[in-house]
Amino acid sequence: MSLIEITGNDLIMAASGFWDRMANRYEKSPVSDEVAYQKKLEVTQTYFKPDMRVLEFGCGTGSTAIVHAPYVEHIIAIDFSDKMLAIARSKAKAANIENVDFINSEIEQFEAPEQGFDVILGHSILHLLKNKQVAIERTYNMLKPGGVFVSSTACMGGSFLKYILPIGHGLGLLPLVRFFSVDELVQNINGAGFEIVRQWQPEGSSAVFIVAKKPV
Ligand SMILES: C[S@@+](CC[C@H](N)C(=O)[O-])C[C@H]1O[C@@H](n2cnc3c(N)ncnc32)[C@H](O)[C@@H]1O
Fold first, then answer.
1. How confident is the model at residue 8 (pLDDT cuts 50, 70, 90)?
2. Most buried by CB count within 10 Å: which residue of 21, 156, 191, 212?
3. Is the pLDDT of residue 10 over 80?
4. Probe ligand 1: pick from 57, 80, 120, 131, max atoms within 8 Å of CB?
5. What CATH code is carried by the domain that includes residue 96?
6. Which pLDDT score, from 0 to 100, does residue 14 have?
């Protein structure tokens, strides 16, 4: 294929292809900080009620959605990698979880009713998007008034990795990663209209955990 024939769709396929290739390895790799992960799950669950409808974007192999499923009415978990979703579906089936729908969709294209969700989750995903602001604004629109956006995002602005990771991406070994600071992410979230109600960065981690509320 020549360069001029490459369309936006081809770029999406290339990106999801990376995650398709990674899916088995991703599922087997341990959580980098289990204590912090458990705390994030616990904090998230304080915002749940049994009648709530939840969206998770970039759900990967579904671990987080499966843990949260018993605490809410329904979860839509989207990801653009079929292989990640296949693993997620088989894990949910093995765990007898029936209130999670795993759907193939890009967050940028996902069609959902405005103000349809009580809680939206986006973990380890905003730094992988071409334009995180678009996803944050879509999240805002999809939340009910008073709804909550819970995210955990690698903020690596200023890291030397910004010189190294693009090489790995060029070689097809890594996804495209965006580099930005915590301040920039906070500005994006506030700029969309949210009020940040909780912000926590575990020691030694680049990942910032943020709970942001859409005003009533
Ligand atoms: C680093 S993994 C995180 C998975 C999971 N949220 C977790 O915390 O383990 C990123 C996931 O986002 C998905 N992804 C990346 N860009 C996406 C996009 N634009 N729309 C939907 N999913 C996307 C990838 O396929 C991958 O499964």
1. very low
2. 212
3. no
4. 80
5. 3.40.50.150
6. 60
DSSP the chain: --GGG--HHHHHHHHHHHHHHHHHHHHHSPPS-HHHHHHHHHHHHTT--TT-EEEEES-TTSHHHHHHGGGSSEEEEEES-HHHHHHHHHHHHHTT--SEEEEE--TTT----TT-EEEEEEES-GGGSS-HHHHHHHHHHHEEEEEEEEEEEE--TT-THHHHHHHHHHTTSS-------HHHHHHHHHHTT-EEEEEE--TT-SEEEEEEE---
How many domains, the chain?
Answer: 1
Distance 132 CA to ligand 1 centre (A): 13
Q: Which atom of ligand 1 is nearest to the CA of 60?
A: 27
- Lowest mean pLDDT across 5-9, 51-55, 204-208: 5-9
What mean pLDDT do residues 112-117 have?
89
State whether the beta carbon of 123 lies less than 6 angstroms from ligand 1.
yes
Domain of residue 170 covers 3-213
By percentage, how much of the chain surpasses pLDDT 90?
A: 78
If we measure between CA atoms, which residue out of 127, 148, 3, 16 comes closest to residue 81? 16
pLDDT at residue 170 is higher than 80 = no
Name beta bridge partners: 154.
207
